[in-house]
Amino acid sequence: MQDMTEVRTPAEMLDERRHPLMTRLPPASHDRVARRFAAACARGDTAALKAVLTAEATVVSDTGGKLRAAVRPTRGADASARFLTALPTGQPDTTTTVEPVNGRTGLVLRRAGQAVAVVSVTVTGTEVAAVWIVLNPDKLRRWHRP
């Protein structure tokens, strides 16, 4: 039987050295944490969000300059949890679904089938270390549903 060697790009190896806790988390572990995060977002539960975020958690929004949102990243579990409760996840006209985003579990928020936000997370161990929120309408088109 032949040994299989995993091939990684130089960028992946550099990222692993910079962020050793973020390396190769099994998909099931990522999924479990991402779903806890999604449930806390859907409830607008600040305490549950703080519990699932690392103390140094960062939230970054991409609006493409087309919407109003935080210009700088939001840092820290407290500030990040407060920021995330402003997402329209619990509003009656908004549906929130857990879907694959960039190959990992994430969230998609839609109104009348139109994506209004796509959220991906970076998980370290049992917590979310980074949250990436795409709000730029130009980047959300492929997420729309009829």
From TrEMBL:
Domain SnoaL-like: 34-126
Key words of the record: Membrane, Transmembrane, Transmembrane helix
Keyword Transmembrane helix appears in the UniProt entry: yes
Top-level taxon of origin: Bacteria
The protein's name in its UniProt record: SnoaL-like domain-containing protein
Claim: Membrane is one of the keywords in the record: yes
Chain ranges passing through the membrane: 115-135
